[in-house]
């Protein structure tokens, strides 16, 4: 095999956000078991279009023995992808599916009470100086968790300051700056991140973990992963 330039992925840094996958015009990358992978060396042209899209710096170009870039194979690969009408990122969060639920008996329970104690809740709209952040436990919810997990009010909203955002669709760069300021100045007692089990959603955990590391914060941190069927994963 020839020695040529090809993408290298540092799995220790990769959070599985999927940005690189959608940025690769050849479809050479996919999220597999929560990490970005080169699915076939001959699909990667080694030009590095994906590198600038990685928020964690997990992508670099290296020179090593690798299969030659095969433009014809790439065309066939992309054609098959489009015919299947599934996203190139192969992310479960974008794949349509139906979820079967067991019928539940009518227990005549009282309607669950909402425990939200402040407004706004969108991370993009909350200023770092918001008074409801002072001295509180902060819960950051990936927005899909609000409808995926049935007891979200009692377990995560009650008594806490709450923010919601989408780690896949939102621009997270402003969030990083804002959360760093909150960590440094708001006097929050703890941070809890709640996100879905799909790979792209793990970017929220990666973002907060990075912020706590870079600010050298000792604020207690917890992570909860919600399954698409509404359960909390171990």
Report on this structure.
Helix 5 (172-185) crosses helix 6 (202-214). This protein has helices spanning 19-23, 71-84, 145-148, 152-157, 172-185, 202-214; strands at 3-9, 29-32, 35-38, 59-65, 137-142, 161-165, 190-196, 221-226, 232-233. The strands form three sheets. A five-stranded mixed β-sheet has the order 6-5-7-8-9. The chain has a two-stranded antiparallel ribbon with strand order 1-4. Residues 85-89 have low confidence and may be disordered. It folds into two domains: 3-91, Alpha-Beta Plaits; 123-233, Rossmann fold (3-Layer(aba) Sandwich). Helix 6 (202-214) links the parallel strand 7 and strand 8. It has 234 residues and is α/β, with parallel strands linked by helices. The protein is 24% helix and 21% strand. It is globular and about 60 Å long. The protein is built from six helices and nine strands, in the order E-H-E-E-E-H-E-H-H-E-H-E-H-E-E.
Topology:
Layout: E1 3-9, H1 19-23, E2 29-32, E3 35-38, E4 59-65, H2 71-84, E5 137-142, H3 145-148, H4 152-157, E6 161-165, H5 172-185, E7 190-196, H6 202-214, E8 221-226, E9 232-233
Parallel strand pairs: 5-6, 5-7, 7-8
Antiparallel strand pairs: 1-4, 2-3, 8-9
Helix pairs in contact: 5-6
Largest sheet: 5 strands, mixed
Rg calculated over all Cα atoms: 21 Å
Gross CATH architecture of the largest domain: 3-Layer(aba) Sandwich
> What is the topology, as strand order, of the major beta sheet?
6-5-7-8-9
What is the string of helix and strand elements? Answer: EHEEEHEHHEHEHEE
The strand count comes to 9
- For the termini, the CA-CA separation is 43 Å
Strand fraction equals 15-25%
Oligomer: single chain
Helical region count? 6
Average predicted confidence as pLDDT: 87
Helix content: 10-25%
Overall shape: it is globular
- CATH topology heading of the largest domain: Rossmann fold
Given this structure, which CATH class of the largest domain is correct?
Alpha Beta
């Amino acid at each position: 095999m020839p020695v040529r330039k090809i993408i290298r992925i540092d799995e220790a840094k990769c959070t599985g956000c999927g940005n690189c996958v959608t940025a690769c015009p050849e479809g050479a990358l996919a999220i597999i078991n929560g990490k970005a992978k080169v699915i076939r060396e001959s699909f990667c042209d080694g030009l590095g279009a994906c590198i600038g899209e990685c928020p964690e710096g997990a992508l670099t170009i290296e020179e090593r023995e690798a299969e030659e870039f095969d433009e014809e194979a790439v065309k066939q690969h992309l054609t098959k992808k489009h015919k299947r009408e599934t996203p190139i990122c192969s992310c479960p969060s974008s794949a349509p599916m139906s979820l079967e639920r067991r019928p539940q008996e009518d227990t005549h329970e009282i309607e669950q009470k909402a425990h939200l104690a402040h407004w706004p809740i969108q991370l993009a709209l909350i200023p770092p100086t918001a008074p409801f952040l002072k001295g509180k436990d902060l819960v950051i919810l990936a927005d899909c968790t609000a409808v995926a997990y049935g007891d979200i009010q009692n377990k995560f909203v009650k008594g806490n300051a709450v923010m919601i955002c989408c780690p896949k669709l939102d621009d997270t760069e402003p969030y990083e700056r804002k959360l760093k300021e909150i960590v440094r100045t708001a006097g929050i007692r703890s941070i809890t991140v709640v996100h879905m089990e799909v790979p792209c959603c793990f970017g929220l955990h990666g973002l907060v973990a990075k912020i706590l590391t870079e600010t050298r914060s000792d604020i207690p941190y917890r992570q909860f992963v919600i399954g698409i069927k509404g359960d909390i994963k171990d």
